[in-house]
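pasting for ref
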Amino acid sequence: MSSSTDKADGGLLRISADKVGRLMDLVNELSLGISATLRLPELEGLDLPGFEAASHRLSMMMRDVQNAAAELRMVEVDEVFRRLRRMIREMERETEKTIQLAVHGEDTLVDKLVADRLYEPLLHVLRNSADHGLEKPEARLAAGKTAAGTITLAARQTGNEVRISVSDDGRGLDYDRILRKAQEKGVLAPDARPAPADLWPVIFLPGFSTAETVSTLSGRGVGMDVLNTALTALRGRIGIESEAGQGTTVSLYIPLTLSFLDCVILRHGPRLFAIPVDLVTEILRPAPENLVPLRAGVDAMVLRQRGRMVPVVPPAEGQGSSDGTSILVVVETTHGPLAIAVDEVLDRQQVVMKPLTGRLVALRASWGLALLSTGEVATVLDCERLVQREAA
């Protein structure tokens, strides 16, 4: 009897999220303590045979413990997807449309802290797909489509990120309508005609909405900026693709875990900064002829690199621009590449993240603070907001 019971429960234990969180806090403190011990100034110059190999082995074991602790808090994204499935029937009644929901990758794992905060932003995208994306049955039949519209909810892990996408086979985004609204709000110049991929991100600006009527699902003047705000809090980013008459896909790219972050550590002046490794595409010291002024009379530079022009920015405001002697860290953002000018690349570390609180909340273009193995603190850069700051 005992044997069959063990087999039935699979050896699983029920552990509260609070206990796992406490364990992870202790693991974080242990990691910092080990790093500080291994870097004690008193150890410098001592003849300690085997110390370097032993300290390296200890550091690798600590990383394994961090990863194992993080895995304890991983849950299947289906916990969120199940709640969204139940909303489809309500959306059908509200919109008078027939909606089929297809789900893929529901066994993809995410940090429970991420999962707990995913429902609202995903529900917002789902509502917009149902209300604005899918056509009424008669309009779909006239367009040669099936009467029932399809919304696809999918998740998959790519590296240290999880991509969750919401796709519909509806009418697609209305380029002219969005352009007109952006021009009315002064977001774009009256004569601007950007490429669709460059126009779509404006729908995530605060208060931007093209809905002309209010419904219980959308068009309440809130707009998609609530999604942008939620993703910023999760250290995530948004991608959007759309084709007229074929549908729209909104993709959320979210870190696998919010506890630890693999970063490149940088110094600019007296300050330390950290950038997630996954965002870095290249680190270089540019030749002077490859740095050119953005435009006359403006103290800003661009990097001429393999046929493209990459904006160059300092990691913090008021720290000047690159003078040709800086090291450039090129990162990829949803708005294209960006080169961040720094004085020195120090290290690559798996850092412990701490959120911004108090007056630090106003710190611009930052995800939070990273506690380094040296005991120092680095600002973790939000490269998406660095791009927005540069554009402003």
